[in-house]
Design a protein that fits this description.
3-stranded antiparallel sheet, 38% helix, 16 helices, 508 residues, Serine Threonine Protein Phosphatase 5, Tetratricopeptide repeat, two-stranded antiparallel ribbon, mainly alpha
Length: 508
Amino acid sequence: MRLKKSFVTAGFVLVSGTFLYLACNKNRLEIPPPTQSEESFFKSENEFRTAVLGVYAGLTDYYSASNSGGGFGSAELEAFYLSGDDLTLTVNSNFEFFDGLTGSNDKLRQIWKSSYIIIGRANKVLEKIRTEEGVFTTPGLKDANEGEVLFLRSFAHFMLWNLFGTAPVDTIVVTSTSQFNIPSSSGVQLLDQVITDLTRAATLLPTSPWDDKNTGRVLAKSAYALLGKAYLFRANATGNTADYQAAVGAFDQISDASLMADFGDNFNIDNENNAESLFEFQAGRNIIATDQNAWLGNDVCDCGVTGAFYQMFYDGAGTYMAAGKYQPTQKLIAAFDPTDPRLPFTMIPAEQQVTKYIVNGDVNDGAVLSLINNRIIRYADVLLMKAEAVLQSNGNPATAIGLVNEVRARARNMVSGGTIPADLNTGETNTATIMQWIIDERFRELAAEGHRWFDLRRWQMAGFVQLDNSFFSSSNESDMKYDDHYLYFPIPTNETDVNPNIVQNPGY
């Protein structure tokens, strides 16, 4: 029996000129008065809990329909769902066609601001945790809270690197005007900070699950998963073999995680926060009114919107308005054996219909938002990243192939006596061949989950793929305008206008 959801993003704490939104777990509702001030807050463990959960609430911007960064608008996830080769649109999208992307793009402006909302909240809560005296009495809670906030700050910096490549690395609470205008990062400095934060977070976070009132909050294994991912991405960008080895080391620290026997359990409401899940967005019901406007961000109104957004996979009323329906590419359809047990949980090829998260009928809150958690990092993702890190660090090729085969075996064993997908040959030694196997398996296993563009981007940097217009399998290939400067999306113009130390990416 699943617990009734009441994930909260209302309840404001005014801190250093920024609103902290209360976001509690799905079973509790604690809303402090909107007149609460910084001076009168942070006086109890519960108030620290509220503030920490306010940092989690920023994830709503990435995975819901509305967002704090842009106010009225459509889902930010278009920026990282549509630029890969797994999804396509029947209408024009700047992100799919790489055409007309400029610093004035609303979604890029939104996602930039949303990322810094998370970072700003994290910095304030970290300051308060590190300077508190005698508030925490529960053993381990202060460390756990610090670990959570470091994890969330690292995730926002990680998103910024994958979209823009360069952005200010922000780890301070501004107390004077001399701290304004933080300069752009260079190279992999954003990832450097991610790795620094996660290395510490992994030592602070609990290894045992939170209690039922706090299900879904991150654990040490969450930090090790994202840490390994950051090392892997940095290795792709720099070619540093030591980072591939460090990625393997981080992934090796993950315990109490395993593949679900049924691939489909990763996308329904009855098996959330399961053994395969390492980090997921805790979707919940709108908490203010049943007649919510899901397209308005929580910073615009007291909307209390907390649901996940999958309407881009639908046709009809209450869907993605005029923005079109996301469909599987012909390349993705061709990548699957028709008898692969994962196929019906991924798409219906004949109908060009994505089915992830909606295969058994979405569980909606109103016309737009869903109550099904978005699984951000799964253990299958980790196994395939670890396979890549083992391979590229000159590890045993058979070990890398064996990790890929674990993912394939799970799919095969969903059917009694199943034979598809078969194990790959563990005797293969050609690195390029094995790397292509990993690339292809990530394509199938993680399709339509928002990973593909970040994968293609880093693999292009590493020279593992060669991106061109035909690579993306767009429904309108003649409209594609890809070239490598799009590996770095344009910095929002409103940011370069107000901060002279932020440098626009080349080509814009």
